[in-house]
Amino acid sequence: MSLIYFASGDSHANIEYQTISSTATEANLEQSERLHDRISKAQFQKLYERFKSAPDQVVGCGDLRRMLEDVDISFSDFTYTRLFLKINQNHDFMIDWNEFVSYLIFGFQDEDPSSQKESLIMPISTAPVVRKTEHRSAVCCITLLKVKSDQTPLEDITESTNYSFGGEDSPENSGMWVTASHEGQLRFWSAHMEPLRSAVSESIHLKVPTWILALQALSDVSIVCTSSTERELRFHETIASTFTLRMVIRSLPFAVYCMSYAFYNNGKTHSRLVLGDYAGNVRILSYSPYLRGPFQAKPGAALVELTWADVLRGRIPLLIPKEYINLHNELISCVYYSLHMNTLFASAEYRNTKKYRGRCPGLIMVSNEDRNNFRIPLGVSVFYVSEVKNILVTGGPDTFVRIWDVYISSEPSAILTGHNGGIVAVFVQPEENKVYSVDYHKIIKVWDLQEHTLLQTYGELVRIIHPSEMDIKYYYHSHLRELMVAGRKLIQIKCCPRVRVDLTDGNTHAAPVSVVLYNRLFRNIVTCGLDSYIIVWDPWTGRRKIIMKNCHTKMIYGETIDIEITAACFDPLEQFLLTGARDGSLKIWNYNNSVVVRNMSIQIDQEVTAVIWVVDRILAMGWDRQVTEFNDVGGEYGDPKKWAKFHTDDITCADVKLGEGVVTATYSGEIIFWKLETGQPYRRYNVMDPSKFIELKLTAEEEKLSRRTKRMSSLLGVNKRNTSLLSSKPDEIKDYGAKIPVSVQAVLFLQKRPMTKEHGSVFISLDTGIIQVYSHHQHGGYIKEFVAVHKVGDCVLTMATDRKNRFLYTGTAFGYIKVWHIINYCIPEEEKTHVCMPRLRLDFIFLRKEIFLTRAKRMVRNQPEPMLVSSYKGHLKAINSLRFINLPKIIFSGSHDYSCRLWTQGGRYLGTLGTVLPWSKLTPFERAGEENRAYRLPPDIKKVASSTTLKVISGIQHSFQVKRAKPTEEREDEGEVEDTGADMKNMFDRPLREPILGKHFALPGRSAIEQRIELDTAQLYVPIYSHLRVHPSEIMENLPMPPIISQLKGENYLDHYMPVVGKVDTSSSAINIREPIKVGRSRAGGTLRQAPRVSSSRDKPKTNSVLGMPRAGTSLGKSMANSAKAGVSSGYGRTNFAASRPRSYSPTSSISSHIKTGRKPDFSAGKAKAAWSSHKAKQVPTPAKAKPEFTLANTKPAVRRNKRDASPIKATTSTAKAQNKKP
């Protein structure tokens, strides 16, 4: 809580204050007071001579204006006064030459882009991810199956950004890690270190176990290449989760120690595999990646085996070899090929200083047979080439990191010192201008590429990796900005990761933002955070102008600890900044040059919660429970003055009214009004009983309470702290009429309200979500109160108002920003003005009507004043500070989620200070957010926003047209309502048809006795249907199944079909199939006879299915229907077709086939039923003494008669089998 006001009647100071209070017209503000763009070198020389010739070499306000007009630099009165205040940094209203030059220098520094590069957090700030490698031994090499190449053609290079939309983190774009151990075991990992599969690379001829030396991924052809001590190169295919050996190159002259691979994404340039061996030779295999080049799968050639001599002879035409023999005298330590420069880089270590005497070519660059030697003592272990910056970074055993111009090999452009061991890994982030280096002792150092300064030393790897592990492998993922460290463990370290703009717009601070201020003189925003940072922002361009780190520090056991900034304010002329910290220290800053002017303190280890700077005096309040007064910067520094200690608890907030008084409030709900001139209290209240008069006299209990030791409130919450105190001593606050006190979170003085009993001039925010209004008059007091939140547990933490006190802006603990119309609230009736509601609805979309009353409106529907004109969720966490800029009508809020966001008065989102996205066009002279367009939402708010928040922030309200429901009779006459699809406006257009529950349900009747619903609210969640009466369910009675259904259920559907070999006659029906002639054999053997042909289709009954059921229109169908009706009367609707079926009814011949001679006929139940379902067309005679030929066409149904029942019964399966056994 912090504000600035004047307490004296100094006319000179009042004139200056009116200058910076933005009371001038908009036309006067159009002219900028910036002097840097209007002064030339000749004018500058003339001004210097004028300053030297002035008395005492200082000039006043009028003298400086005449000097500027003499060199043709003129300003308006208002603009020139602002310029003079900016130049006058000594507060003496006299300017010397040093002040004038300092103002120009600081102005030019604001335009320096280097002020934007300093990051709020360290490049490596997140905890590393560690997991086991699942290898039997330590990982000896690691590579990445990339999706995109690190090298890009010159014409495709675009400006790199520091943010991403999340696509780089997707599995499709991240690639796949491959690790290998010496015994030949390979493991595949996802980009987020999830194990995928494992494989083995071993020699196919030698029986001895392999020993892997190097591993390289050929990403554009999906090949993984391994080199081993057998002097082999094994190329494994990894397409579709396979690991197949595709090619083996044996009998290399020397074993390959290191490999590198270069390719383009477009596939138009030859890819190159670079091999460095133990003898100092470098070999290059180049090929075209089109159709996977030499690794294309061909039928009949699953594995290609050849020697290196065969490769040189051109056995594989698609593989083009090239050799550089004896490029180095020692083994090749690192190789790289740049496609952009068409250049080969190869390095080696020369540790034998007696042999080479420091004249060793540590790195050789080969381009078109031209060689450049980068001579480095002890050689080069690792290097990194950045084609974007045209630089080369090398590291070796001499512990130095050298930065070279890639085209100048005579001497390095910079040497970075600081490592205590040999360099084992280096890489560059060109878009961040950072160089990372890792030494033998596992220490990572981050360097600035332009300033050549050390930014961070990261030693977490020493703790994670065992000291005995020395052979550690490093690989940098340029797209994910992650460093992979492999040994016995896999360690993933994020190195300055990109901002995910699909999740957040970025952060303003590295910790929660505690105070936000607007400087009307310099027109910039100052933010202070719990990270002990003070940052100056230009809200019109979104640029960061000045950043001050480690503002408040404390030495604890020899270590410097940052102290959180909890309060801040400006001086009356807004040239200096006053900050208060958690340890009780206060500092005065000239924040334009980051210089501390003065150090002060209220009491050791007592948090400063509010600071106020009035003319000639500084007031500081905090956990010492009293007001401490300091002299101004211009006066003499003396001992601070302590005001009377009337508070019995820690002071949480304070505010001041210009020339009238100060109000302070505490955790226990005490409110005391003080005279600003004398520092004496004149009224005292308690928020729990605001109408009660409390005498300004310390009772014995309060004196005893004030002498008690301050409790450890910094470790506990506000409510918990008060509750614990009251539980221990409940009688100490019995004067206030309650056991649990209500704390005050914020206070606000309305500067335009007069000091009368009828005018509510002080707003008090409580932790219960209520805002109380008081009059600070001596005979005034509590007037009214209203609910300022719409969620249980929420409360207002900060309040602000505009210059004319028309609106009240509140920020809550749940992140909501609310705007209240208070122009007619708590004032006499004769002073109230007319409110133009159409104008308010144009300015605040929240007031426009909706179909359903939203939650924020439901809370205030019975609360006519003050009117809630806007409500939306601005942050995910609590809003700690809120301010308002009058002329452009901009609200900016600082939150516990590390961000400071700008909003229009109507609620449109303008941006977050510190974002990586482009900034909106803003100006201090025009109102922001006037254009009618859809505004974007913060990504984090978009995921949790309600309908009200979406409407207010975006500025778009979907219109719904509700039609009155028509009576049921009219709707039935009109017929069915047309389906309008997915149109939103017709979502609620059609009411439900009557009856809503259908014809099978009925609502229970209303009981004569009123039944009261009692819900159990003891649990966290209330089951809303638990009060309904539930009837016990009964077991449903199953009706007996008819016998005909039971019999059909046991049949097999496939028994009705036989293989058809005949031809289909397309001219007749679909079931008229001509069957082939079957040849039958007699049982005696030898005699073959032809089976009779089935009758034609004209003799068949008319059917309507392939099962042979008669059609409804035929006589047979009518007889069956009559018999079915007759059978319904008996049993459960059972129909006996056997009694009414004619004798000539035979199976359908079109779907039957003859049974081969020599096999017994099948009289199963299914075929017997099929035989009964069709009409017999013709009787075929059977010759004597010969086995009859059974077909489905001439088989009679097997019928038996029961002695007790004369009705025929179908033959069962057992009966049919018994008949088949008869000769």
Automatic annotation (TrEMBL):
Region (Disordered) location: 1083-1223
Biased composition (Low complexity): 1140-1153, 1164-1174
Biased composition, class Polar residues, residue ranges: 1210-1223
Entry keyword set: Repeat, WD repeat
PROSITE patterns per record: WD_REPEATS_2 (PS50082)
WD repeat positions: 390-406, 416-457, 565-599, 872-903
Alphabetized SUPFAM superfamilies for the sequence: EF-hand (SSF47473), Soluble quinoprotein glucose dehydrogenase (SSF50952), WD40 repeat-like (SSF50978)
UniProt keyword Ligase present: no
PANTHER family: EF-HAND CALCIUM BINDING DOMAIN 8, WD40 REPEAT DOMAIN 95
Protein name: WD repeat-containing protein on Y chromosome
Organism: Drosophila hydei (Fruit fly)
